[in-house]
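Archive entry: two folds, one per protein. Generate the first.
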Amino acid sequence: MNDTIRVVIIEDEIPAARLLKSMIETLRPSWSITVIPGSIDEAVEWFASNPHPDIAFLDIHLSDGNSFLFVEQAKPESMIVFTTAYDEYAVRAFSLNSIDYLLKPIDQQRLQDAIVKFENLTSRYTKDSAKNELLLDALESLSNPEKRYRTRFLIAGANHFITLQVSDIAYFYSENKETFAVTQSRKEYIIELSLDKLSEQLDPDRFFRTNRQTIVCIDAIKAIEPYFQNRVSVSVVPPFKEKILVSRERLAAFKLWLNY
């Protein structure tokens, strides 16, 4: 990658584009920033005739349609940070390792966080065509009101990305301030979300927060046994390295969940 980071802002509101450009210039004065008119046709034409930037700030709703069409046609070889007026619930699909989003009006600290995330990921970022498919899936999910809960994660490997389906996950656990997902086939992946955030994004019919350390899937539960002090011990497949205990305070909710 060149020493100078190349940035493109695709935004259909000129004042918003100017404000975002000014904010980025304040945080990263050395970056080269180009503002593109926020229409699909003009943005696609620009990407077809110019080197793709290192990072693009892309408004989800452009003047002539959803940015789904831009990604589909331009196939940007860039990190993308979405900007949107949607509420946070509507954009949970964008909480992926290589994707961030900024809610309007854009907060300076959130912009700083997104930039740092880009810089941390850049060293392992590759121009992978599969990434565009993930972007399309995420954008398409905004048009699907029935998709209420997370269905997959984007996992960054040494030189490529993979998708991890939530349906393949047996349980999550936290350790040393990191979150791990364990699949039914015993593979482990680092998830860049806390258990608190995961609890908000996972289907509560399938996943239960048993304690501060673990979230388990109903399909992974092998046995439930009484434990000391009116708690229960949950055995899962594949086995977890420690006992998974449900506290007295969570026990009533846990039984209701199992029986619903």
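Generate the second and append.
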Amino acid sequence: MVILGFVLEAPSHAYRMHELIKQRGKDNVVNVAQRNSVYQTIAQLQAAELIRVRETQQDEGRPERVVYEITPLGKKTFHAWLEAMLGEPRREFNEFPAALASVMALSPEIVLAQLRKRCDALKRKLAESQATSKACLEQGLPRLFMLDDEYKQALLKAEIKWLGDITTELASGRMTWNEKWLRKLAAQFEWGKPDLL
């Protein structure tokens, strides 16, 4: 999606796309740890006839660069993907909600320590994201190109606040559990009993 968007923006070669991903901070959205992943994506888009070779450039002392452009099918497909992704919430299966669903398997003290650890890590991520956004905006990149970062920061802020509320409850003892209480609760909500629903 990101690579196709760059080619829609302007005909591009792989190196330019890889650099734009890093310059615009999109390496938090797409995995480009290895430049080869950009080439693999380009090959897949080309095989699907969503992009095509526009020209090959050869600058003195530099390797040959293949410049790609979007095809009419690529533009149509990109717009369809983008519209669907923007307008239709999808089920995403993240690890964290799954862990929260089983949190009672650990002691409240361990949960408190791990949630504090998570909160600290999220605060660092938020600070990094805000610094990247600020640098991009200072370089003249319009805010329009940073909306994904704003969204990510809003989610991080919301999770940090939520974690703060939960850790406060755990630390004060307002939210707690133990094995005896869990067993009693399990017996109360046995399958087949009418009070389960």
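Annotation attached to the second fold: The mean pLDDT is 88. The longest helix spans residues 108-138.
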